[in-house]
Amino acid sequence: RRAVEAVAKESQYQENERIKREKKEKKKKEKETKDSIYDNEAIDRELLNAYKEGKGYLDEISKVNKEISETQISKKVSHMEVVIRRIFKQVQTHPEQLEEIRRFMEYYLPTTLKLVTTYSEFDAQPVQGENIKKAKHEIEETLDTINEAFEKLLDSLFEAAALDISTDISVMNAMLTQEGLKKDIFES
Length: 188
Fold this sequence. Notes:
single chain; mainly alpha
């Protein structure tokens, strides 16, 4: 009976030690999580500020677009709005890409807003001389360039994901071939 009690006490002692270790590990993980949340707060704050700034530009571009009477130009600006929204959505999903859109935020968006605003102001002029017509035409052509550039930026934000998928596919194909589950392309 004493031997059974000793075994039971030893089992209870072992169980208590295991629970203590688990509690220590849980506290350690909670502390690490708390620390990493604190580290991420700076990123989250930076992302939020970038999003607010970008949304401000986007709202202004959208507002000015409503004032443009030329349908083709308005369509170009509307397309640009869609691409800009997608860029922000991608960066919101992948905050590590925030640095990749820094120039976009600091130069391209403000300059684009200025161009769209200028176009709208020129478009609203009742009398349009050669200078206004020429400037509007240059802005029209530049909008195409801007749209292409913004599309390329958006595409570049997916580059890493596309590379990962390509690598995964290559590895999967190699494994399937190696295990005889797929025909080797080099076999005749």
